[in-house]
Every structure is written in structure tokens, then in C-alpha cells.
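Ops channel
N.P.: pipeline sanity check, posting one input/output pair.
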């Protein structure tokens, strides 16, 4: 997933090439990393939803197979429980009906197999989205860590300058 250059440009120009209030020149990069992480979170959520929908479709198709098998079992039971002699026409019609049900079951089983392949592909996409989110989070955390180091260094520099200024004042007061 590549970042859209238009919003990167907007962030860049809004922040005057990344200079924030505290002088940290990578604020724009921090915002970009945060935006990328947010986009990847959304992509993961979409992938999870797509996987769930595909699993529901598999379950729906499996139920259709079970229903068709139950209908076939009922037809076989009705044929076996027939009272008295059965006409040739009724027997042929019953066998055609059973053959049609068996063909329908086979077609439904193929649809289940196709849906299971889709689930596997969606699960793979979900795993890729998880990995992309982990990468984006790592990249954002690296910039955050750098920012924290920058802030600590600035605080140390500021404290050192204040200490130096206090020392200068103390030196001037000595007679």
C-alpha cells in the first residue's frame, strides 16, 4: 500500500517542510508514519471483514449441500417405502430426480471447494495486512523513539545552557 503523494505534499507544506513548534524537523515524517499505520489498520479491518464474509459464504454453501443431501435421502426413503407395485414411468421419474439431486450435490460441493479457496486467499491477504500493519507500527515507533531522544537531548541542552547562564551570573557576582 503506497501513500498518496497529494496528502504527503499537503502535510509537508502545512508543516513548512516538517518544522514543528519544538524545532523537530521530522514532524511531517511522524505524521506520514501515523497516517500509514492508520491506513494499514483500516486495511486489516477490511481484510478481517472480507475473511469473515467468505467464511459465512462457505457455511451457507455447506448448508446447501446438507439440505440437498437430506432431500436425496428423503427421495430414496420414499422410493424404498413405496407401497405395492410401482409403474415403470414412476420408477424412471424417481431415478431421474435422484440423478438430478446427485448432480446438484456435486455442483454444490464444487462451489464449497471454490468458496474454501476464496477463504484461503482472504486469510492470506489478512496475514499480509497484519504484517504490513506490524511494519508500519515499527516504522512509526522508530520515528517516535527518535523524537523522544531528540526531546531528551533538547532538555539536556536547555538544562546545560541554564546551568551555564547561572554559572556566568555567579562568576560576575564574585568580587
Amino acid at each position: 500500500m503506497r501513500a498518496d503523494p497529494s496528502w504527503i505534499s499537503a502535510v509537508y507544506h502545512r508543516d513548512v517542510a516538517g518544522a514543528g513548534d519544538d524545532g523537530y524537523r521530522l514532524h511531517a515524517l511522524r505524521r506520514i508514519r501515523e497516517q500509514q499505520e492508520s491506513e494499514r489498520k483500516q486495511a486489516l479491518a477490511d481484510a478481517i471483514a472480507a475473511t469473515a464474509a467468505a467464511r459465512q459464504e462457505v457455511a451457507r454453501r455447506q448448508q446447501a449441500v446438507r439440505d440437498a443431501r437430506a432431500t436425496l435421502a428423503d427421495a430414496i426413503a420414499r422410493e424404498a417405502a413405496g407401497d405395492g407395485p410401482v409403474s415403470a414411468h414412476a420408477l424412471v421419474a424417481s431415478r431421474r430426480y435422484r440423478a438430478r439431486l446427485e448432480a446438484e450435490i456435486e455442483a454444490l460441493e464444487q462451489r464449497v471447494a471454490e468458496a474454501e479457496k476464496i477463504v484461503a486467499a482472504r486469510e492470506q491477504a489478512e496475514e499480509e495486512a497484519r504484517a504490513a500493519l506490524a511494519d508500519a507500527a515499527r516504522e512509526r515507533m522508530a520515528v517516535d523513539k527518535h523524537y523522544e531522544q531528540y526531546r531528551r537531548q533538547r532538555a539536556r541542552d536547555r538544562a546545560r545552557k541554564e546551568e551555564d547562564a547561572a554559572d556566568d551570573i555567579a562568576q560576575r557576582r564574585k568580587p
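N.P.: looks fine end to end. The helical segments are 5-14, 27-80, 88-173.
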